Amino acid sequence: MKQENSLSPIWNWRITGLSFGLLFFVSILAVSFGPVSLDFSKILRTLFALPGGLTGQERTLLIDLRLPRVLLGALVGAALATSGAVYQTVFRNPLADPYLLGVAAGAGLGATIALTSSGANLYSLLPIFSFCGAIFAVLTSFFISGKFFAEPNSLLLSGIAVGSFATAVQTYLQQRHSSSLRPVYSWILGELTVANWQVVSRSSIYIMIALVILITVSKQLDGLMLTDEEAYSLGINPNRLRIIAVIAATLATATAVSASGLIGFVGIVVPHLVRGITRRVTNRSLLTIALVGASFLVLADLGARTLLSPAELPIGVITAFVGAPFFLVVLRKKRLVAK
Length: 339
Known about the structure:
It is a single chain. By secondary structure, this protein is mostly helical. It is built from 14 helices and no strands.
């Protein structure tokens, strides 16, 4: 305990400051490189409205294409990483994923409906459809689970059932509209190609609200690591806190999915990575987890844009390439601890 207290000032200032610095560096790197490289110093002059910045097509490329894409990637990464950390606490499962409770399947079904609907061009409404699908799936999980207040795992099981049903309907629609399979699969693998200032502004509102709520209650979330009786003795209402945490995390996840498609493993890799490096297992690290999650996804998107340039990989391929082995390591570690 003495060591934990002695590390608190370092944690509060240096590690969080380093996380901000990492995000800034990765973001500048991401807007600099691509099929057309931009001068690093001119980018900084443009961003800070100083003389000698970018002009013409290079300025348009930075302001209208790369910058909103980087900002959207940062928002999505922060949302998925923070939601993953919160779900792992709420369900007391280190392998919990942001796409629990049918979020991914519901969003996928909504996106599939938008992409396969005949007689109407609904592609522009894809984010709205996927967001509504995700929220509807979660509300259905809440409705089905009558024992959530007594046992959180009942909500988890309801989410699995709802997710399976939504996936079945999604598969049926895909088979009925085989010509739309390619855009559906492209969306499922995750993409930030739809990024523009309108998407960024709309997504930032919901994600920032959710993140502020989760970071505000982060200290109380530590109480969910204890039994409910112990949490009550500390003045924490665990059932109410679970509801707040799940709703906020789901709002962040649903918004992220509606803007970028399904991007896996961010919510598993980043929380474990941050907690492993800092040796802090508490939820007081949520701000740092959000910042590192943002940096992780911005860097992954840079790889997706440049590895096969001028072609572009789905960003979900990059995160899976990194996250799948990491997931196996965490799983093995959990089994060794259980033994």
